[in-house]
Amino acid sequence: MLKKFQEALDKRKETGILRTLKPKSAGIDFYSNDYLGLARSQEFHQLLLKQIQENPGLLYGSSGSRLISGNSSTVTETENYIAEQHQYPAALLFCSGYNANLALFSTLPDRHDTVIVDEHIHRSVHDACRMSHAKKIKFRHNDPEDLESILKKHPGQCYIAIESLYSMDGDFAPVREIAALAKKYNAALIVDEAHYFGVFGYGLIEKYQLQHDVFAAVITYGKALGAHGACILCNETVKSYLVNFSSPFIYTTAAQDFLWIAIKSGYQFLKLKPELSKKLHQNFFSEH
Ligand SMILES: Cc1ncc(COP(=O)(O)O)c(C=O)c1O
Question: pLDDT band for position 67 (50/70/90)?
Fold first, then answer.
């Protein structure tokens, strides 16, 4: 068995694509997802430190899954706050964006459904589709015409998975056109706002006020917010369905309250510091 693993590793090494874990590089950061510098912001850290000093209980371990002993008023209040901020009826927090996507796409579609994904969609969605047993079809990147041709051929329940901003090429999704198609074909549109959130306000959905047309959204907090974790924005029925049936939500220990407080404080910090994203845009446009 080990021989098989070693052969695969050797093959990677030969072609120069062997992955290894390296220490953080020193120097100017052109490679992380810490788009606004919050992960290293002294000012933000001081704010969090003050909250811990005032309430050391934030550092307690959650002690279990949220369905057993791991739920707290802090996580519930943070979810309510996030839902209100994004103008969605409900929000459900997760320890990572990977887990949030895994929860959505492994739980909502069943074996009779079709998940139509942009060909550049994040790996977590592909992994989730394997868990769901739904049929998965890729459409050409950012191409609503190709998407429509697939929707026409699949009259059953379809889910459409896109990102609002694709990190590899830095291009935006034609979200209004895709939302119109979702409506026309009664498909459920799910938008991952991982790279858009914080850099351009709360997201493309907020920008175009598409809350009623986008079935669910994923917001992640490991990028512009410099923290960790993610939430799914959806309606109350979908939230309750995930809480009842989603393995990546149920069978895992909840994070410490500190994470939920860091996320809520991150939203408040971004509101106080609009200059952070303005500076990023200036840097970008002076380079292009
Ligand atoms: C589009 C997208 N969705 C989800 C994720 C996963 O988020 P997290 O890093 O919080 O697990 C990433 C992370 O790279 C991402 O780029």
Answer: very high
